[in-house]
Amino acid sequence: MTAKERVKAAIEHREPDLVPVGEWIIDYEPASLVLGRQSYLRGKAGLAHALWEGRRDELVDSIKRDLVELTRRLDLDMVCVDLTWPRGYHPDPPERVDEDTWRDAHGNVFRYSDLTRDLMVLTEGEQSWEPPRPPRWSNGEFQPDASELDIIEYVMAELGETHFLFTGMGDARLPIYGAQFVERELMRLAEDPDGLAAERMASYREHAKRIPFFARLGFDAIIVGDDYGFNTGPFMSPEMFRRVYFPALQHLCEAAHQHGMYLICHSCGNLRLLLPLLIEAGIDVYQAIQPEEDIVSLKRDFGKDLCLWGGVSSHDLVTGDPETVRRQVHHAISACAPGGGFILGSSHSIGVRTPLSNIIAFLEAAGRHPQPAGAHTSHG
Question: What distances in angstroms separate CA 140 from CA 26, 88, 145, 208, one per listed residue?
Fold first, then answer.
């Protein structure tokens, strides 16, 4: 089987020759360790500073090569590839306030987190920190600038025939993150659920209109990421989920299936109570399965209707030792692989501070043959 055939077999509940292995996200630190050189894949704060310095073309050339080489060196079956920044993308650099803080001309304040290596939004200004973009639509069809396909076209040419390719379909932006939207969303959920449902449907309808473009490029699946909960359960009751989020998600699933694509649903949090609704909406793969959800019991209770993607704790990949990682891999495969419907991966992503020894243990325990180039001191 090719890697692409292996993943498709698992999604369709057929047993492949090997358990498919994949990651949605691999941060720059572990990527740099595997590649033996500095990488800007999921480059976080270092990537934001490079974009502020006007290095878009250099970054795109580096990222597209690194993405393909990393996939091959780790012997992965699937890879996520998205639109990149258009040629000429050069957001205005902010003013440095202190060692860890920056402020842009619109009043947005960003602070560096050494724990995650991210730039986080401390204060939101009057306007976005993103520069304006040219029109993206023509006669109702999504038409990004040709330069935004620079990474996609390279990866498609190198891996499109052999590997399972999926995309989030979103625009490339500065890697700056914030949590303020969570509070706003939860307040809307409590105070105006029908208004929120209408906004969500409008957003997903617009998102669904992009699907034909990515289907023509040859993608196998799309991934949609919405966090519906925290460790102890979902943010809302199943009844409220059906009222507010279900119609939009079902619309997106139907649009993906109409164009021959699978839909992967990423969501952080313990969503056991919502899984029947996610299945009813039509998702094909459920990713970001945290240890609190117990992937083995999810396989028992929902495995006939859903492909589960996970099995290894992202936290333990960072803090544990190789033997801990191997035990989790063997446990997940033995319990979840029979009958198909299982893709091995981390419980979220392979994040910063993950040691190379744990990555190698993870893949070798799955019967793969990783070939890292060697250790590397990553950038910050």
Answer: 34, 25, 15, 12
Q: How far apart are alpha carbons 83 and 63 in whole angstroms?
A: 12
The closest alpha carbon to 236, from 198, 261, 271, belongs to 271
The answer to whether residue 53 sits within a structural domain is yes
> Do both 160 and 177 map to the same domain?
yes
* Furthest C-alpha separation in the chain: 56
User: Do residues 17 and 117 both lie within one domain?
Assistant: no
Same domain, yes or no: 187 and 125: no
Beta-ladder partners of 233: 230
This prediction has a pTM of 0.95
Compute how many other C-beta atoms are within 10 angstroms of the C-beta atom of residue 369.
Answer: 9
pLDDT digits (tens, 9 = 90+) for 45-60: 999 999 999 999 999 9
Q: Are residues 79 and 111 in the same domain?
A: no
pLDDT per position as a tens digit, 236-294: 999 999 999 999 999 999 999 999 999 999 999 999 999 999 999 999 999 999 999 99
- Structural domain of 219: 3-86+136-365
Q: How many domains does the chain have?
A: 2
Pairing of the two strands 78-80 and 95-98: unpaired
Residue environment code for 125-137, b if the CB has 16+ CB neighbours within 10 A, otherwise e: eeeebeeeeeeee
Same domain, 122 and 232: no
Do the beta carbons of residue 320 and residue 347 sit within 8 Å? no
The phi and psi torsions of 304 (rounded to 5 degrees) equal -75, -20
169: left (phi over 0), alpha (psi -120 to 50) or beta: left
